[in-house]
Design a protein that fits this description.
Layout: H1 3-34, H2 41-59, H3 62-70, H4 76-93, H5 97-120, H6 123-145, H7 150-158, H8 164-186, H9 201-214, E1 224-226, E2 232-235, E3 238-243, H10 250-269, H11 285-299, H12 303-316, H13 325-332, H14 346-365, H15 373-385, H16 411-430, H17 434-438, H18 444-453, H19 463-471, H20 478-491
Parallel strand pairs: 1-3
Antiparallel strand pairs: 2-3
Helix pairs in contact: 1-2, 1-3, 2-5, 5-6, 6-7, 8-14, 8-20, 9-10, 9-12, 10-11, 11-16, 12-13, 14-15, 14-16, 16-20
């Protein structure tokens, strides 16, 4: 074995342990959100901080620099591993260890503070924690930016290659068509009826499990629990999902479940050869979101699949108001005035993201103070959506992201929608009889196409390259906007 091969092997053995410890950290986060007793929050913050200190030390270990200098890449996989380890090493080496540990500790504690503040609509109780989180993330961004844009440095963590300028230009191109479509839909003479009735928790969870199975979720490598803000956690052979139940709104549970199954199936679909290596996770949060959104929307909310879902609901719940499959499809996709991003329809969802993008850029730049955030949120929401926020839980306290320091994350949601639009166009070209399969509740051809063309690659390619290779063209917003206009003009008979 020559010295370059030996260096690569030693590097990957070391990295395997680091990746395994990262999975342990993720399991602590999952437990905090699902089963941890409330009184354990302070101790859990210390535990997360301690583990982050260990991880940061490994990610900045001086031996990594030597191995990276000596290692030889003899395959595309090896080159990709070296690319990702080099990126992580450079990024983490600029962040002082005490700062990394403090961010982990403070964000863990802030998540509990946010949950309590949201429950009691007490913005003032959350502001000190949020101020500290922003202070720490700005300090981290300053280390990473090296004199450049702070927000770009944060975006890079979630979507390598994206910048605030490029995302802002994309939003500027999308906004006019979205606003015009929303206006036409809300002013349409035909308006679908909302779902009415009460849908018990047990029944909703039975249907949710059926949906997860229909989309290929592997119960031998996963489980489903409850969380205030649904999420997916893990990779490899342990990928868990969460959902939530509102007894007057079964679609909240059903489509939260399908959304998180999309995330989970991405991780489960990655080649097992990449397990516990840098390639054993999604290429970016934008690509990850493309999978959750295409599962939830282009597949799960399609006319074909909602016909199958209606039958499953009829078997579980005798009493609800949709009289036929067409009416049920319209109800599932009803555009309505609402506060909550995660419950928003496809037409308005990206407008929620654009608002958060602008607000968090202002927070990170210092143009917006934390104490002015609630007023800024409420003013922007009124301007964008036309009505007044009724309570903080429906306003600035609705999302967990800022509590846990995920600044730069929100724009990847719309980027994921854009990618999903491109993938949907390519997938339907490749599978011309897809709707006939979906009408039987059979998603296997679609999910297999996504697994083979996107999911199996893990982190092998850069984010935009993943989508370009799958679609045969560079990703752009056109397919998404065309899909939305065709779908909703059809539903609303425009």
């Amino acid at each position: 074995m020559n010295i370059r091969t030996k260096a690569y092997d030693e590097l990957m053995a070391f990295q395997r342990q680091t990746e395994a410890l990262g999975q342990v950290a993720g399991r602590l986060d999952w437990d905090r959100e699902t089963t941890m007793p409330r009184g354990a929050a302070a101790q859990r913050a210390e535990e997360c901080g301690a583990l982050e200190a260990v991880l940061h030390a490994r990610r900045t270990d001086p031996r990594l620099g030597g191995w990276l200098e000596e290692a030889e890449a003899t395959s595309d996989v090896a080159r990709a591993n070296l690319r990702l380890i080099r990126r992580s090493f450079a990024r983490n080496s600029t962040i002082p260890a005490p700062l990394a540990e403090e961010i982990a500790r403070v964000t863990s504690a802030a998540q509990g503070t946010w949950a309590e503040a949201r429950e009691t609509n007490d913005v003032a109780a959350f502001l000190p924690s949020l101020s500290r989180v922003i202070e720490l993330r700005r300090e981290e961004a300053a280390c990473l930016a090296q004199g450049g844009d702070l927000y770009d440095a944060l975006i890079e963590e979630y979507e390598p290659g994206a910048t605030a300028a490029s995302l802002g230009q994309m939003f500027d191109r999308m906004r006019p068509r979205l606003v015009e479509l929303r206006g036409a839909v809300l002013d349409a003479e035909y308006q679908p009826e909302p779902m009415e009735g009460r849908f018990d928790r047990t029944g909703q969870m039975r249907v949710a499990r059926e949906l997860a199975s229909a989309f290929g979720y592997d119960w031998d490598r996963g489980r489903m629990d409850f969380a205030v803000h649904p999420f997916s956690s893990g990779s490899g052979s342990d990928v868990r999902i969460t959902t939530r139940v509102v007894e007057t709104d079964p679609f909240n549970c059903f489509y939260s479940t399908v959304h998180e199954v999309g995330h989970a199936c991405y991780e489960l679909g990655i080649s097992p050869d990449y397990a516990l290596t840098p390639l054993g996770a999604g290429a970016s949060m934008g690509v990850h979101e493309s999978q959750s959104r295409i599962y939830e929307n282009q597949l799960g909310r399609s006319r074909a699949f909602t016909g199958w879902l209606m039958a499953r609901m009829r078997a579980q719940f005798a009493d609800f108001n949709a009289k036929d499959a067409d009416e049920f499809y319209a109800t599932v996709n009803k555009v309505r005035a609402g506060y909550i991003r995660t419950e928003s329809d496809e037409v308005q969802y990206n407008l929620h993201v654009m608002m958060r993008f602008d607000l968090e850029r202002a927070l990170i730049s210092g143009d917006l103070g934390v104490r002015d955030l609630e007023a800024a949120w409420n003013d922007r929401f009124k301007a964008d959506f036309g009505f007044v926020v009724d309570q903080p839980a429906n306003g600035m306290l609705q999302d967990v992201h800022w509590a846990v320091g995920l600044f730069g994350y929100f724009p990847t949601y719309t980027l994921g929608n854009l990618y999903a639009g491109c993938l949907n166009q390519a997938m339907r070209t490749a599978i011309p009889k897809l709707d006939s399969q979906l009408s039987d509740g059979d998603t296997s051809t679609a999910t297999t196409w996504l697994r083979e063309n996107v999911q199996s690659h893990g982190g092998l390619y850069e984010p935009r390259e993943v989508i370009t290779r799958a679609c045969g063209f560079e990703p752009h917003e056109g397919p998404l906007l065309d899909y939305l206009e065709e779908k909703f003009r059809g539903i609303y008979k425009l």
